[in-house]
Specification:
heterodimer, A: 162 residues, mainly alpha, Cytochrome C3, two-stranded antiparallel sheet, 44% helix, 5% strand, flat, B: three-stranded mixed sheet, 13% strand
Chain lengths: 162, 311
């Protein structure tokens, strides 16, 4: 009986841990695994273990706002409240794939009151965010630690006429 | 030889003098600072973001169809090498190169060099065949068809950027970054290096907007940057602008350059050249003739007076 209860308690604790929200108020329906493939040309898609990365920080470390957890950057918090949840949350929905296209530059110029005028493109956002944190945390920082080169990538770094 | 009357000589001298004065004034006015084409594009390089991956070098190589380097672009040992005791420079097969600047106890800084596409380029003003052109999009382009290979531009460039294809015995030409003008810039696209950079070290946009963005970065992140945009005023302003967290002179920038375009150093002198060439021959011929006339006495004078009467 005693051992049975021990097992039961253990199971309950485990179950509680398993299902515990990672953070107070955090969105529950996030993808655990993401394939970052919108920019693959020189490199293959990057498998990104979203869930694993939650062991190292808060949602708001990468998602500036809208995840339901407290906004960390005081400047962002001036407009984006903690309670706010927004439908647009993934990187690529806000950071442009082609940030310097003529259309993009024209649109920025036309919008005189645009606040986020210096917003990095998608590639910049990924790397500035990922690599910056990887450096701080002592995680891998080499290009090929996250990326696998395609044939085009191999030729690109070899250089010369093709 | 026909004589010249004193009246005619004085009139001609005065007219010549006036013309020269006027033309000099006009030149001086024309030389007042040119701020670049209002819609000219530029690139803001934020050195704090660069990780030295050399993707920009590889992208440039591909875009410009350059020869393959001896070591591939993912070879980072290049940062430890020295060439004639110096860090790497641009050459005929690399229009852009990245160098690393180390300092004890600080993160290394990587700095990409290429043509800075000056508002008033020294290469352009030094070229007597007008092989260079500053396009309205902001690029400084080069036309090998009219180049005679004098290499004045290589001497004139304050950033030591133009290279010469010494490897070509019969058709050598200047090789330098052209802002991908033909293949990209004139179609409104950023240069290949900007597109390739993973860290968005480079921001492409109108030069006037980039200065605002750069100032905003300095203002909103106190302590992160040196409070200076390199290229905003240097040598009259360049299309490529730089932000750094280390003093610019520590990371290879020439901070002794004046705010004036290089041409300003020689403009005063050059404007006197046409005056000397145009006025001196007339002036001294006049003096010569006057002195000769005095030698000949009244006969010559009478002849001139008669000539005047006939008219």
């Amino acid at each position: 009986m005693h051992t049975k209860r021990k097992w039961l308690v253990g199971a309950i604790v485990l179950a509680a841990l398993w299902s515990a929200p990672l953070e107070e108020g955090a969105a529950q329906d996030f993808p655990e695994f993401i394939e970052l493939d919108s920019l693959s040309d020189l490199y293959g898609p990057v498998p990104f273990d979203h869930l694993m990365h939650l062991d190292f920080g808060s949602c708001a470390d990468c998602h500036h706002h809208g995840t339901g957890v407290p906004v960390q950057d005081a400047n962002c918090a001036r407009c984006h409240s903690n309670a706010e949840t927004v439908p647009i949350i993934s990187c690529k929905e806000c950071h442009a794939r082609d940030p310097f296209s003529a259309t993009d530059i024209r649109e920025k110029e036309a919008d005189l009151h645009l606040y986020h005028r210096d917003k990095p493109g998608l590639k910049g956002a990924y790397h500035l965010s990922c690599l910056g944190c990887h450096e701080e945390m002592g995680a891998p920082t080499g290009c090929n630690d996250c990326h696998v080169r395609t044939k085009a990538g191999e030729a690109f770094f070899r250089g010369g006429p093709r | 030889m026909k004589g010249i009357s004193r009246r005619r000589f004085l009139a001609a001298s005065l007219a010549g003098g006036a013309a020269t004065t006027l033309s000099v004034t006009k030149e001086a006015w024309g030389a007042s600072s040119f701020d670049g084409y209002p819609d000219g594009m530029g690139v803001l390089v934020d050195l704090t973001r660069c990780v030295g991956c050399r993707s920009c070098e590889a992208a440039c190589n591909k875009e410009q169809n350059l020869a393959a380097p001896a070591e591939p672009f993912d070879d980072m040992s290049i940062y430890d090498k020295r060439f004639h005791g110096q860090k790497r420079r641009t050459d005929e097969n690399s229009y852009t190169v990245v160098n690393r600047y180390e300092k004890d106890g600080a993160k290394p800084v990587y700095r990409k060099i290429q043509c800075n596409h000056c508002n008033e380029p020294a290469c352009l003003t030094s070229c007597f065949t007008s092989a260079y052109k500053k396009t309205k999009e902001g690029a400084v382009t080069y036309n090998s068809k009219v180049c005679v290979g004098c290499r004045n531009c290589m001497v004139a460039c304050p950033f030591a950027i133009p290279a010469y294809s010494y490897s070509s015995a019969f058709n050598p030409e200047i090789k330098k970054c052209v802002f991908c003008h033909e293949t990209r810039l004139k179609n409104g696209q950023p240069p290949a290096c900007v597109d390739a950079c993973p860290q968005e070290v480079m921001t492409f946009g109108r030069r006037r907007d980039l200065i605002k963005i750069a100032n905003d970065r300095i203002r909103t992140r106190p302590g992160r940057y040196v409070d200076h945009i390199y290229g905003e005023h240097e040598v009259g302003g360049t299309a490529w602008l730089y932000l750094s967290d280390r003093p610019f002179e520590e990371v290879g920038f020439d901070t002794t350059l004046s705010k004036e375009p290089i041409i300003s150093n020689v403009k005063g002198f050059l404007s006197t050249v046409p005056m000397v060439l145009a006025i001196w021959p007339a002036l001294f011929t006049g003096f010569h003739l006057l002195s000769k006339k005095q030698d000949h006495g009244h006969g010559e004078h009478a002849h001139s007076a008669q000539e005047e009467d006939e008219k």
